[in-house]
């Protein structure tokens, strides 16, 4: 992720040069057009567009921004699936249903508005997954389990997922895909005269476009949003 962000920022910075006054900017749109392949509408039915959304330092309201940006970048009106990773809980605090609810409600709204087909979770144990399933209007279609935390799927989680038709997937993502300090370091290295310490990442979305019939990845990439907290 770090390498992708750095390469994009460096390429973007070299193209715009010093034309923009970095002091006054609150939003930087750093895009490299040729790096994102828009989906041909005629091929849309043959492709599955999925995303995993890592909320870094913002509220649940940013979920809509992330989905809208992903749809716009890829030239689609809807994502087939989105897996949500809420911000890490504070030390000494356990992940709870109450913590997840605002994020899930925002995803449910997007399903109802036909921006997403299916929504899923990441790293929920059987107890929390069951609580979410019973509470939610739009049920989770999948739950990712970190390979680092278990070599074998917990039997109680497997049984519950099978009973409720929830797909169990595996992943090996770190707890923080791109922390604030790492992002600011990349920003400092890539763009001249930018006050990197004022910029805070809000969310990171990783997308993949898969050819359904063949199960191969046609394209994949990252979209990240950050805001400037100037004093």
Notable traits:
single chain, 231 residues, alpha/beta, 6 helices, glutamate-cysteine ligase catalytic subunit binding
Strand content: 25-35%
Shape: globular
Unreliable segments of 5+ consecutive residues: none
Number of strands: 7
Alpha-carbon distance between the two ends: 28 Å
Q: In angstroms, what is the radius of gyration?
A: 19 Å
Largest sheet: 7 strands, mixed
Helix/sheet category: alpha/beta
Task: Give me the strand/helix succession.
Answer: HEHEHEHEHEHEE
Helix content: 25-40%
- For the biggest β-sheet, the strand order reads 5-4-3-2-1-6-7
Whole-number total of structural domains: 1
Number of H/I helices = 6
Overall residue-averaged pLDDT value: 84
Briefly, what is this?
By secondary structure, the protein is an alpha/beta fold. The chain has helices spanning about 1-15, 60-75, 95-110, 125-135, 155-165, 180-190, and strands at about 45-55, 80-85, 115-120, 140-145, 165-170, 200-210, 215-230.
């Amino acid at each position: 992720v770090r390498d992708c962000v750095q390469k994009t920022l460096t390429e973007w910075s070299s193209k715009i040069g010093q034309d923009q006054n970095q002091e006054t900017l609150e939003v930087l749109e750093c895009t490299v057009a040729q790096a994102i392949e828009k989906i041909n509408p005629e091929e849309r039915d043959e492709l599955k567009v999925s995303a995993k959304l890592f909320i870094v330092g913002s509220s649940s309201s940013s979920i809509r921004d992330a989905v809208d940006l992903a749809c716009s970048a890829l030239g689609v009106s809807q994502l087939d699936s989105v897996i949500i990773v809420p911000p890490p809980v504070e030390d000494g605090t356990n992940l709870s249903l109450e913590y997840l609810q605002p994020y899930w409600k925002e995803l449910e709204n997007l399903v109802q508005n036909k921006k997403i087909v299916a929504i899923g979770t990441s790293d929920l144990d059987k107890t929390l997954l069951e609580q979410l399933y019973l509470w939610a209007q739009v049920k989770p279609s999948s739950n990712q389990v970190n390979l680092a935390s278990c070599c074998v799927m917990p039997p109680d989680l497997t049984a519950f997922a099978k009973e409720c038709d929830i797909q169990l997937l595996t992943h090996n993502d770190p707890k923080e895909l791109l922390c604030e300090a790492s992002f600011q370091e990349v920003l400092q290295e890539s763009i001249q005269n930018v006050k990197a310490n004022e910029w805070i990442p809000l969310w990171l979305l990783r997308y993949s476009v898969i050819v359904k019939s063949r199960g191969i990845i046609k394209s994949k990439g990252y979209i990240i949003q950050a805001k400037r907290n100037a004093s």
